[in-house]
Amino acid sequence: MINLKIDPEFQSQIPPLTDDEFKQLEENILKEGKLISPLIVWGNTLVDGHNRYEIVQEHPEISFSTMPLPFESREEVLAWICKNQLGRRNLTPEQKKFLIGKQYSVEHRKPGGNGNNQYTATTQEAVQEELCQIDTIPPTSAEASIRKQIAERNNVSESYVARSEKFMRGVEIMEQMMPGTKEKILSGQFKVRDADMHRLARADFPNRKQIVHEILHPEDRPAPQKRIYGINYSALEAAAGEYRPADAKPQKHSPEDIAGEMHIPQMQAKKLNRA
């Protein structure tokens, strides 16, 4: 039997089968007595067919073949895996979003993918620093082209592709901090907000623990601040309460009154009033 190498990163991009799906696959293979389709490999590393390979290891009498593909880099392998998995019909919305984000990420970071070739041998620390700036670095023309291609191929918008990358980053960080979380999120078992995954993707290392805590314990989230036209309206409302002495009758103060005391331009205060 051919002994193939299992790459954990490659395998982790492939949505796992349910117990029933795996059992059905095993029964079909045993009935055929062989693998009908070859396993896709890169050198001696398995790229596609992990479930089938696991089954033939349990049943060495089952014959199989391999098909090597001429990938030039790990990024190219990962992009191929994502595109191949996106062709499945039984993906959850979370799995689809993750795969689109992963494909976009590796395609515009692989050699020649972003026009700069600067990610081919990047250290982990530098990559993490770049991820923290994910919202501040404008896309290059090459990145924009890749984003457009992925969007058209998957019938989604280009902005969806960009958001999917941040979602994917957040999920990967969650998995690093709490192993096993990724499968629960992508299967839909554990629901998370896109906004939280985006926050996690942007956060530097010291702030991640607090964000993860708020994701797991929504009741501990800080009260949201109401902002209108860039002004913290919650602060204005709080300031309005300070205008009234404890023994005075309730009075309503307009945003213009409060804005005047807080030295906010009247035009912005009028916008607040209209809001």
Provide key terms for this protein.
three-stranded mixed sheet; 5 strands; 3 domains; elongated; 14 helices; mainly alpha; 275 residues; two-stranded antiparallel sheet
Provide a quick synopsis of the model:
The chain has 275 residues and is mainly α. It has 14 helices and five strands.
Count of folded domains: 3
Structural class: mainly alpha
From the alpha-carbon coordinates, what is the Rg to the nearest angstrom?
Answer: 26 Å
Termini separation (Å)? 71 Å
Strand content: 5-15%
Biggest sheet: strand arrangement: 2-1-3
Outline the low-pLDDT stretches.
Answer: 113-133
* Tertiary shape: elongated
Number of E-type strands: 5
Our count of helices gives 14
What portion of residues is helical? Answer: 40-55%
Largest sheet: 3 strands, mixed
Provide the residue-averaged pLDDT. 82
Assembly state: single chain
SSE succession: HHEEHEHHHHHHHHEEHHH
Describe the protein's topology:
Layout lengths: L7 H5 L6 H14 L6 E4 L2 E4 L1 H9 L7 E3 L5 H12 L7 H15 L16 H9 L8 H14 L3 H20 L3 H6 L7 H9 L2 H12 L10 E2 L2 E2 H10 L12 H7 L4 H9 L1
Parallel strand pairs: 1-3
Antiparallel strand pairs: 1-2, 4-5
Helix pairs in contact: 4-5, 5-7, 5-8, 7-8, 8-10, 13-14
